[in-house]
Amino acid sequence: MDRSDVTLERMRTFVRVAERGSLSAVARELGVGQSTITRHLRELEEAVGVPLLSRTTRRVTMTDEGSRYYADSVQILRLVEQASDEARGTRGASAGTIRISCTAALGVLHVSRLIFAFQDRYPDIGTDLSLTDERIDLVREGVDIALRLGPLTDSSMKLRALGQSRRLLVAAPAYLAARGRPAAPQDLPSHEGIRMSNIAGSDTLVLQGPGGERHAVPFGGRFRVDHGLAAREALVAGRGIAPAHHWLVDDLLAAGRLEVILPDYAPPPVPLSMLIVPERAGIARVRLLVDFLAERIGGIPGIEKSR
Q: Within 13 Å, how many C-alpha atoms sit on residue 283's CB side?
């Protein structure tokens, strides 16, 4: 083989295997057999004349030459996609697939509807929406954009602040009828709390008072859960009191199935951010979705947009 056998298809296969560290995972992602992935890699290595990957029974890792080749390949593939967009003109932005990851409950209740509206505007753009509360490696998982609640530490991604998610203390009328309504933060330790097991420090509830003062009170309970939708169900079932994002319970509050308690005391708001893989940020369809979400995110109940 010679260098003319370095095809974009083989290069894309190599990039994804380097990112995921697994031939079988990439085969599933691309919808081909693992033998096809193996053949692409073998042909690419023969064409460039050096080993790019080191294979073990557990994992595939890049050689030193592979690491350098990977960095160049990512840039080449990005430029190829951008060139295709520009060649197609305005139609180039409206073709292809975008992969987006989102906090699970927010994605189910609200972001999926925004994606529907985006696809109505750009019917030729496909979207692959992954819902998870885990802080996944965006590059490894092939994600273009991620919406995340809470502080972020991944400095390798482009970050766009979207706003603050306001939170409330809520409970079901049946719970309040049975256990009484707290009149002050100091009453909360004697109540059943619904806590998030995947949030550190959930055994202490921090509230901001009407004058901005901070109250930290013990917060216990028999039910802990790691998913916002399950916490929502527990609230409706009258299992206790919980701090909840406004967007998680806005419909239940409007229907009278939940009530706000201690309205003058609220948990601090949580930042909502968009992470963008830098190598994907210049792709036209990705830019369209980034701008669309940034524009529409303020329509979600309780989200105060960044200025």
A: 25
Please list, in sequence order, all residues whose beta carbon lies within 8 angstroms of the beta carbon of residue 90, skipping any fewer than 6 positions away: none
Residue with tokens 């609220």: 266
pLDDT at residue 170, as a whole number: 98
CB-based burial label for 249 (10 Å; 0-12, 13-18, 19+): buried
Output the pLDDT for position 89.
58
Q: Which residues of the chain have pLDDT under 50?
A: 1, 90-92
The answer to pTM > 0.70 is: yes
- Nearest-angstrom CA–CA distance, 217 and 207: 8
Q: Between helices 34-48 and 23-30, what is the axis angle to 10°?
A: 110
Length, in residues, of the chain: 307
Three-class DSSP labels, the chain: CCHHHCCHHHHHHHHHHHHHCCHHHHHHHHCCCHHHHHHHHHHHHHHHCCCCEEECCCCEEECHHHHHHHHHHHHHHHHHHHHHHHHHHHHHHHCEEEEEEECHHHHHHHHHHHHHHHHHHCCCEEEEEEECCCCCCHHHHCCCEEEEECCCCCCCCEEEEEEEECEEEEECHHHHHHHCCCCCHHHHHHCCEEEECCCCCCCEEEEECCCCCEEEEECCCCEEECCHHHHHHHHHCCCCEEEEEHHHHHHHHHCCCCEECCCCCECCCEEEEEEECHHHCCCHHHHHHHHHHHHHHHHCCCEEECC
- For 146, left (φ over 0), alpha (ψ -120 to 50), or beta? beta
